[in-house]
Design goal:
This protein is an alpha/beta fold and 474 residues long. The protein has four domains: 54 residues, no CATH class; 115 residues, no CATH class; 118 residues; 118 residues, no CATH class. Helices cover 34% and strands 18% of the residues. The chain has twelve helices and 16 strands. The N and C termini lie far apart (95 Å). The mean pLDDT is 84. It comes from Mycena metata.
């Protein structure tokens, strides 16, 4: 057993070691504090930017499209969680808070909307609301109270909700005197149909409104200043509804329609619309088995001011109706885009397409290609102003794969021959693309000579794209 003297000696030794380590620790703590002070004095380059530059960067970071902006993963909320300086810049930038696009309901929605709109101050607001943010109960009532308070600042409004959602919003006295852009989409339940009536009366005073999008809502059931609209898009509208709204909009210049559910076509007369310059027909099948009828609209309208015509994925295309429409309108048509999943091989009346500069046709058959490129190569009077030509495809079937080599082979020969013709414009761009194939899928179908011909055309300054949407073989 150790003696008292030995124990005291060992105790003193350990106490000295602890004191020595404490001295070292204090020195290290002092050094650490010194380094922290020096670090605090450093201004990071990003924090040395003027506030207006930082706010401009924040504005470029805001999400695009339909992303929910009330999300801490994106601007404007994300920068607020980085540091106090960025938070202050974000709060002091009203333009960051002018877009309120929400897709999810929460109990904090009323307070979030209140803070959001107040930070935007008096700047015009763009608001998008979806059915999921319109829950029953006190939350929605509080939110709509805030929505009503700031409705005067809204210049763009998108409502995608149910019949009940529209009714609840419609009960509030809203002020849309600054509204310019309106989008309304009716969302249906499992047992609902588009033909069930719904009236929307909240837009009784919208003196600045000029652009409207409706989906599933009959135009006759929503009082709007139709005469002042310049742009209109209608989805899931009956053919009579399409003709009704065209008749009500004497000043519209851009119009897109998706008509369905054919009625007695003999009951309508052909009407003339003098101001439409851009007209688009969209596929409108309510489900996979219902036929789309959008192209039938062409049988009942005349558009003498038409400059751009687009037919997008319409499956009921009728060449005779199309031909008659072009001749009847006798319009200064510049751009023609025809996309159909069944393929379109239209007859283009020479007198109706004299001014055409841009042409896009999907899924043309080989017979059409031979006639089209033959005329392009031989006759300067055939599409004499044509400058841009495109053949987009998509399906992975034998017909599509078989037509792509013909587009390239005949196209290259025709473009080269046309360069020797006098009295016609020369093509500036040529595109053959497939959104269902990689460029490597197509290279084995095309001859090296054809590809080299297009490489030479590209080297001469022509815009050439042959391959997938993302990669060209040329």
């Amino acid at each position: 057993m150790e003696s008292n003297e030995v124990l005291r000696a060992r105790y003193s030794e350990l106490a000295w070691a602890i004191a020595n380590q404490q001295t070292l620790l204090n020195a290290m703590m002092a050094r650490l504090q010194e380094l922290q002070t020096r670090l605090d004095s450093i201004v990071y380059p990003v924090l040395s930017l003027p506030p207006e530059i930082t706010s401009g960067i924040f504005l470029h970071c805001t999400p695009e499209g339909y992303r929910d902006v009330v999300d801490t993963s994106f601007a404007p909320l994300l920068p607020m969680h980085v540091c106090r300086a960025w938070r202050q810049v974000a709060i002091s930038t009203p333009a960051l808070w002018t877009t309120f696009h929400v897709t999810g309901a929460s109990r904090s929605l009323p307070e979030t909307a209140k803070v959001w709109f107040e930070r935007a101050r008096q700047l015009p607001l763009s608001v998008s609301l979806y059915q999921s943010v319109l829950p029953p109960g006190r939350v929605i009532d509080e939110f709509l109270a805030t929505f009503r308070q700031h409705s005067e600042s809204i210049h763009s409004l998108e409502l995608d909700t149910s019949r009940d959602g529209f009714r609840r919003i419609d009960t509030h006295l809203l002020d849309f005197t600054r509204l310019r852009n309106l989008s309304l989409r009716l969302l249906l339940g499992e047992d609902e149909a588009f033909d069930h009536a719904i009236e929307i009366n909240m837009f009784h005073s919208v003196p600045l409104l000029n652009e409207v999008f409706l989906s599933g809502i009959p135009p006759s059931l929503i009082p709007l200043p139709w005469q002042q609209l310049t742009k209109f898009t209608g989805h899931f509208l009956t053919l009579p509804a399409c003709l009704y709204v065209l008749h009500r909009m004497p000043n519209v210049t851009e119009c897109a329609l998706a008509a369905y559910a054919s009625h007695d076509i003999g009951a309508f007369e052909i009407s003339r619309h003098p101001t439409i310059e851009t007209f688009t027909l969209l596929r409108a099948a309510v489900n996979y088995y219902d036929p789309a009828d959008s192209a039938q609209v062409l049988a009942f309208i005349t558009l003498p001011a038409l400059r751009t015509l687009r037919i997008e994925n319409v499956i009921d295309f009728d060449e005779e109706t199309f031909h008659s429409f072009l001749l009847r309108s006798s319009a200064p048509l510049k751009t023609l885009s025809m996309r159909s999943r069944r393929g379109i091989s239209p007859v283009l009346p020479p007198q109706a397409v004299l001014m055409l500069t841009d042409l896009e046709i999907s899924y043309p058959n080989n017979e059409f290609l031979a006639t089209f490129f033959g005329s392009l190569a031989q006759f300067p009077s055939f599409l004499p102003q044509l400058q841009n030509l495109a053949f987009p495809t998509g399906y992975r079937d034998a017909t599509v794969l078989g037509s792509i080599p013909e587009m390239v082979r005949l196209g290259g020969t025709a473009i080269t021959a046309r360069r020797n013709l006098q009295g016609c414009a020369q093509l500036q761009s040529f595109r053959v693309t497939s959104d269902s194939h990689d460029a490597t899928d197509l290279v084995s179908l095309l001859s090296k000579g054809d590809l080299q011909l297009f490489r030479n055309l590209k080297a001469s300054g022509m815009d050439i794209h042959i391959g997938s949407e993302w990669e060209s073989l040329v």
